[in-house]
Write a structure and sequence with these properties.
homodimer, Arc Repressor Mutant, subunit A, Tetracycline Repressor, domain 2, 2 domains, DNA-binding
DNA sequence: CACAGTTATAACACTCAGTGCCATAAATGG
DNA sequence: CCATTTATGGCACTGAGTGTTATAACTGTG
């Protein structure tokens, strides 16, 4: 939603005014490289702008916050949780359906893994960069919440829906970060394993309170 | 850890140099009131400093980041998860022990609820304020992780420990925010109910993958 | 080609968060 | 009175983020 608008490359629409000089995604990649080399705090927006060949002001137009350079410019990692949830098998349990949806939505192509990994490692090193992912995660949580509420027949604003949503969301993001830190499996497999283990861990405890 | 150092009021230690003129907690309360009245973004550190009767520079000495005014100055809400975990009954399951620990650590006195509620609502309204709680939550997660790893006989850096820790942490914080948004129960009861429902929800699903 | 409409760019100036430096004030102990 | 310790506040600086505005580059039309 808040991400870049570089939707199609095979765009037949005959654009109107002055064309974009430097593609935003390119600026984000340059920024990512600079952050890796010198450290996030040691690279100013001015630096990124210069390296990308645009003015500071233009850079801010595409990336309103510096943190956005880390994630919002990620053409990869734009998951389709919505579609995956819509295609959930009706007979599966809610948790199983969520696992399947994540598995589908996180099925990145291998080339994209490395950029995503670097982004996640940056976020891990600079916790305040969580701001960069918050928007996307909030959107995902919204979808999760609606899905859970409907499947379980619960009120959208009930305690259980909120708690379940946040727990699942945190668990899957945790698994992604874990994967970024060196897991050899794919992101999809890491999240799938994480939710499976959560299920096992909670399911193994004494049934009710 | 990173919080204020106003440990004791009955402090017999004969302090040395120049005394503190304005107590930091007081400045934080004034700031909280201003944030409620005018909105977080519409109140500058300069404003808070003036209202609290100190210089901008001094304010920054006690609250290195503006967000710290929201949470770090909270003498209430300093939970003792560590102690509560240490007193966990050995025969209880891990999750049950965690629930009991939260119930104990979150047993605020009623007077403190209102300030905490206002802080949490501010954080909910301005997600970037999550920065303010992150430090404390990170410390708590560290304790949770060690506890879970030991009780379950797992490696501290295993996927399951990370995921379980993050899920439980997110769930309890979620319950706290839920409580702040109008739940009539106490924070301790909200978190307890949340973890119980999580247990039930996961326990009810098909056992393994 | 000239012209109007559209969109991107960059320069300028501004607010505010956050930091380093340092002179000075206010306490204590000898 | 003097040395030490600690808190204060002023000054200046960097960097993020924003509003404004003039201008450049493109498209389509007559």
């Amino acid at each position: 939603m808040t991400a870049t608008q570089a939707s199609e490359s095979s765009d037949a629409a005959p654009r109107r005014g002055r064309p974009v000089e430097v593609q935003p995604e390119q600026a984000a990649l340059i920024a990512l490289r600079l952050f890796d080399e010198r450290g996030y705090d040691e690279v100013s927006m001015e630096d990124v702008a210069r390296a990308a060949g645009m003015s500071r002001r233009s850079l801010f137009r595409y990336f309103p916050r510096k943190a956005d350079l880390v994630w919002s410019g990620a053409a990869e990692a734009q998951t389709d949780i919505r579609g995956a949830l819509a295609r959930a098998r009706p007979e599966a349990s809610t948790i199983d359906a969520l696992r399947a949806a994540y598995a589908t939505a996180l099925d990145f192509s291998e080339d994209q893994w490395e950029a995503t990994r670097r982004r996640l490692l940056l976020i891990q090193r600079h916790p305040s960069l969580y701001d960069a992912v918050r928007g996307q995660l909030d959107d995902q949580r919204e979808l999760l919440a609606s899905f859970i509420a409907e499947r379980e027949g619960l009120a959208r604003e009930s305690l259980l829906v909120h708690v379940l949503t946040d727990a699942v969301s945190a668990a899957s993001f945790s698994a992604l970060v874990w994967w970024a830190s060196g897991d050899e499996r794919s992101p999809a497999e890491a999240v799938n394993a994480a939710l499976a283990e959560l299920q096992k861990a909670f399911g193994a405890t004494s049934p009710i309170n």
